[in-house]
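Risk register update: the risk of archive-format incompatibility is retired. Evidence:
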Amino acid sequence: MGSNAGNAGASGALYGLGIFGALFWFWGQADGFWEHIWSIFQAFFWPAWMVYQAFEALYR
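Archived output:
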């Protein structure tokens, strides 16, 4: 049986780039100290929030 472990690196790199891109985006939108702290949280959890919003839109 073959292993597909080599394919996991590309998706991890793509996810990492997404996190950095989101961090730069949210960081640029923040004004104060707590907004910058919140932007770090948003950068790590934006995929979950996006899926939640998509399911919420489909439900309506």
